[in-house]
Request: fold
Amino acid sequence: MNEADVITALSALAQETRLRVLRYLVTKGPAGAAAGEVAGVVEASPSRASFHLSTLADAGLIVAERDARSIIYRVDFERMGALMGYLVHDCCANNATVRSCC
Reply:
């Protein structure tokens, strides 16, 4: 992951609803969740939820897949791992104290 990708991802996460969305989708694992379900859980209108889901998808943190009439959103766990790896190893210079908390 390069610096520009990290900045985009962190910018997407620097918003309360989007952070809630990501946290919820992590709990759903590979099955993911439909946009309407996500909207209900994070207490956002469908249009607001769609906006936040799109922002997270544009940042590469989640992926969307059409399933009949629904769009299912899933966390891109490899991308999340790359972000965490960048923060721990590159940004924090692999600091032992930072590594120990993770």
